[in-house]
Automatic annotation (TrEMBL):
Residues 8-100 form the Thioredoxin domain. SUPFAM superfamilies: Thioredoxin-like (SSF52833). Gene3D superfamilies: Glutaredoxin. Transmembrane segments: none annotated. This is Thioredoxin. It comes from hydrothermal vent metagenome. Pfam families: Thioredoxin.
Length: 109
């Protein structure tokens, strides 16, 4: 999972990738640091076309605010540039996987 350094990087990825998962987190967010490798390990094999990126909201506060992220962790999933899924704070990775799978299968069929 690549860590983004600025909004411009995110804009390029949104334009060039049909499926994108963004994890908004922070270095001092224990939950964020715990789920980051779990999301990557679980989803990178199952959804090979899903680009996954991490944004550290402690470093990129303005980018996080532009995306309506004011608490952590937040996962946003985009398909064809449109936000389809948003999970905030307490959420199940299994539920997230099932929701991604519904749209991902339609997109790749």
């Amino acid at each position: 999972m690549n860590q983004l350094e600025d909004q411009a990087q995110l804009d390029v990825i949104k334009q060039n990738k049909d499926a994108l998962l963004i994890l908004f987190g922070g270095a001092h967010c224990g939950v964020c640091q715990t789920i980051k490798p779990q999301i990557y390990d679980k989803f990178s094999t199952k959804f090979p076309d899903l680009e996954m990126v991490y944004i550290d909201c402690e470093q990129l506060q303005e980018t996080c605010a532009q995306h309506g992220v004011f608490s952590l962790p937040v996962v946003q999933v985009f398909f064809m540039g449109q936000k389809f899924i948003e999970k905030v704070r307490g959420f199940s990775l299994l539920e997230l996987e099932q929701e991604i799978n519904k749209t991902y299968e339609k997109m790749n069929s």
